[in-house]
Automatic annotation (TrEMBL):
Compositional bias annotation for Gly residues: 163-181
Family: Belongs to the oleosin family.
Location of the protein in the cell: Lipid droplet; Membrane
UniProt name for this protein: Oleosin
Source species: Coix lacryma-jobi (Job's tears)
InterPro entries with a match to the protein in the record: Oleosin
């Protein structure tokens, strides 16, 4: 039982012939049987020297920066009463120009948006005006129709009142005209 557990731990599985596989054969089984293609090998062969060259150049740039800073530090210390205010002035001026440009672009874009909105509103206005005219014409026609109906009603009541009063039955106090309402 210990042999079985040990073989499971160390990965010595049995081959078809009954002998255990060596560790190197197992690793070979995990690696693909094919090697890199020609294009992959060419890519590595091309990019490896280029990457090395760029790494060397970045190291040289770092070394030059450190040496330059070491040489320039005494000069900066001697001229700091002049350089610090000049650097602050230049930094403030650059910040002001950048802020001015950003605010100008923001204002210009908001005015452009407003102009586009106004243009679209004016293009839609004739539709609204035509709809308002149509509604006003409908309202005027309806008001005219109601006025005509009211006029006919008043006329018919007047005729009824005139027929009742002309029939001769009453005087002023009899109230003959009120009976019809």
């Amino acid at each position: 039982m210990a042999d079985r557990d040990r073989s499971g731990i160390y990965g010595q599985h049995q081959q078809g012939g009954g002998r255990p596989m060596a560790m190197g054969e197992q690793v070979k089984g995990m690696i693909h049987d094919k090697g890199p293609t020609a294009s992959q090998a060419l890519t590595v062969a091309t990019l490896f020297p280029l990457g090395g060259l760029l790494l060397v150049l970045s190291g040289l740039a770092l070394a030059a920066t450190v040496v330059g800073l070491a040489l320039a530090t005494p000069v900066f210390l001697l001229f700091s009463p002049v350089l610090v205010p000049a650097a602050l002035l230049i930094g403030t001026a650059v910040a002001g120009f950048l802020t001015s440009g950003a605010l100008g672009l923001g204002g210009l874009s908001s005015l452009t948006c407003l102009a586009n909105t106004a243009r679209q509103a004016f293009q839609r206005t004739p539709d609204y005006v035509e709809e308002a005219r149509r509604r006003m014409a409908e309202a005027a026609a309806q008001a005219g129709h109601k006025t005509q109906q009211a006029g006919h009603a008043v006329q018919s009541r007047a005729q009824e009142a005139g027929a009742g009063a002309g029939g001769g039955a009453g005087g002023a106090g009899t109230g003959g005209g009120r009976a019809s309402s």
